[in-house]
């Protein structure tokens, strides 16, 4: 009897963990960070309770998008090695329940954002969810190798949402932050796709390494990185940030460029496949996550210290 009693809480905890997994919590963490920074650097103030509500809505909106994405992609997730253990393909959560969960959270996040802050922020949040679900997941992902380039816009909205929650408008600065994330996304995701290309090829998802080869993907990683780095300096050049952010952008950017060059120069066979198990790509992918987080933290610190 005691064994059964002890097993029940563990089963309940495991089920809760599955519902949390549907929200893609690792993705949410970076989304929330960039949204918080957008909120912090915006001119004006938001009551702390309303600010917390806005951040929660950004997290819920991103999580809802992830849940709907998992519902839509359950067929290919069941085949791809790195996604087979997700709750839906593993049979731990019913697809219909996952869809209802995602849609419910999406609607709630937009309504609460509108009531707690303003409807401009709510509208941008709704746009980000719709873009991820309909434009990236349902339209682009399985149809074009440019899926992550165009669809990556969905992940670039959080700082715009945070800014709009405070100001009620969208101006040049939040759009610059949007552009930084937009151009960061391809080298970040293509680094991942270099060492996960076999999974994508297996299910027919036309990621760049599958359609254009590993060598072209490496070149594109380097090209987008070269475009991204000067873009990160625009907030300082336009007078929005000071030397702290500019110094961080340069230092972080140089390291990002070093990783991109290593990916480009990775030892390859005649087909362009890595002879080093894509170790440079794996390192570049991990660093890209740290890069964006530290870049936005530097932006917030600069505004807090230098005003």
UniProtKB/TrEMBL annotation:
It holds the Pfam family UbiA. It is found in: Cell membrane. GO terms for molecular function: protoheme IX farnesyltransferase activity. Its main location: membrane. It is a multi-pass membrane protein. GO terms for biological process: heme O biosynthetic process. It catalyses: heme b + (2E,6E)-farnesyl diphosphate + H2O = Fe(II)-heme o + diphosphate. Pathway: Porphyrin-containing compound metabolism; heme O biosynthesis; heme O from protoheme: step 1/1. GO terms for cellular component: plasma membrane. It is an enzyme of class 2 (transferase). InterPro entries: Protohaem_IX_farnesylTrfase, UbiA_prenyltransferase, UbiA_prenylTrfase_CS, UbiA_sf. It comes from the Bacteria. The keyword Transmembrane helix applies. The keyword DNA-binding does not apply. Keywords: Cell membrane, Heme biosynthesis, Membrane, Transferase, Transmembrane, Transmembrane helix. The chain crosses the membrane at residues 27-43, 49-72, 93-113, 119-140, 147-166, 172-200, 221-238, 244-264, 284-301. Its EC number is 2.5.1.141. Converts heme B (protoheme IX) to heme O by substitution of the vinyl group on carbon 2 of heme B porphyrin ring with a hydroxyethyl farnesyl side group. Belongs to the UbiA prenyltransferase family. Protoheme IX farnesyltransferase subfamily. Carbon 2 of the heme B porphyrin ring is defined according to the Fischer nomenclature. This is Protoheme IX farnesyltransferase. It comes from Belnapia rosea.
């Amino acid at each position: 009897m005691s064994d059964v009693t002890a097993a029940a809480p563990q089963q309940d905890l495991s089920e809760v963990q599955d519902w949390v997994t549907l929200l893609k919590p690792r993705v949410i963490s970076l989304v929330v960070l960039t949204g918080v920074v957008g909120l912090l650097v915006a001119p004006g103030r938001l009551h702390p309770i309303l600010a917390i509500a806005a951040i929660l809505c950004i997290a819920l909106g991103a999580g809802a998008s992830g849940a709907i994405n998992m519902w839509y992609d359950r067929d290919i997730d069941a085949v791809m090695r790195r996604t087979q253990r997700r709750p839906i393909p593993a049979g731990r959560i019913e697809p219909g329940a996952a869809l209802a969960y995602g849609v419910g959270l999406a609607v709630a996040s937009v309504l609460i954002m509108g009531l707690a802050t303003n409807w401009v922020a709510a509208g941008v949040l709704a746009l980000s969810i719709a873009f991820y679900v309909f434009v990236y997941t349902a339209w682009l992902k399985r149809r074009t190798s440019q899926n992550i380039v165009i669809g990556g816009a969905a992940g670039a909205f959080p700082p715009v949402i945070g800014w709009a929650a405070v100001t009620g408008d969208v101006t040049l600065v939040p759009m610059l932050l949007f552009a930084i994330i937009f151009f960061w996304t391809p080298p970040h995701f293509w680094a991942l796709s270099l060492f996960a290309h076999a999974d994508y090829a297996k299910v027919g998802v036309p990621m760049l390494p599958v359609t254009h080869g590993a060598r072209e993907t490496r070149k594109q990683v380097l090209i987008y990185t070269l475009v991204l780095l000067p873009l990160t300096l625009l907030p300082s050049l336009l007078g929005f940030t000071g030397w702290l952010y500019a110094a961080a952008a340069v230092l972080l950017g140089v390291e990002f460029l070093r990783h991109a060059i290593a990916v480009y120069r990775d030892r390859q066979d005649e087909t362009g496949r890595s002879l080093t198990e894509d170790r440079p790509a794996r390192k570049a992918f991990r660093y890209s996550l740290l890069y964006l987080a530290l870049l936005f933290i530097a932006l917030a610190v600069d505004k807090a210290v230098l005003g």
